[in-house]
Amino acid sequence: PRRPRQPFQLRGRQRRIVVRDPSRLGSVFYDYDITFGLSDEEATLVLGGEVVLWSEQADGTVLDVRVWPRASAMAETLWSGNRDTSGKKRYAEATDRLNQWRYRMVGRGAVRC
């Protein structure tokens, strides 16, 4: 799991991650564990998370392509959790849901990836 010591940034001065395969970008966000290092009691106090895209990194021509795949993967993690009751990652379940989402967005012309 990724340690949330500071806000997670895909690009920026604090952290840089190079993703050579755009289809794996969602897994970068899906793997982020917002409650890493917290006790069970502290983890229950986490109310949510946020995905942002700075305007310096994108303009209107690429906004949908960049923000929605990332936000959907993070939303999957925040809403469903990324582990089952035994502590194993739920990649198969998440992949199915994220693929269904992607097909809907491509059909609407919002995402070209």
Automatic annotation (TrEMBL):
Assigned EC number: 3.2.1.52
Keywords carried by this UniProt record: Hydrolase, Signal
Domain of life: Eukaryota
Matches recorded under InterPro entries: Beta_hexosaminidase_sua/sub, GH, Glyco_hydro_20_cat
Entries under Gene3D superfamilies matching the protein: Glycosidases
SUPFAM superfamilies hit by this protein: (Trans)glycosidases
Record keyword Hydrolase present: yes
One MF term in the entry's GO annotations: beta-N-acetylhexosaminidase activity
GO CC, alphabetical: membrane
Domain Glycoside hydrolase family 20 catalytic, chain residue ranges per copy: 38-81
GO biological process, one term: glycosaminoglycan metabolic process
Family according to the record: Belongs to the glycosyl hydrolase 20 family.
Identification of the protein by name: beta-N-acetylhexosaminidase
Natural source organism: Taxus chinensis
Classification of source organism: Eukaryota, Viridiplantae, Streptophyta, Embryophyta, Tracheophyta
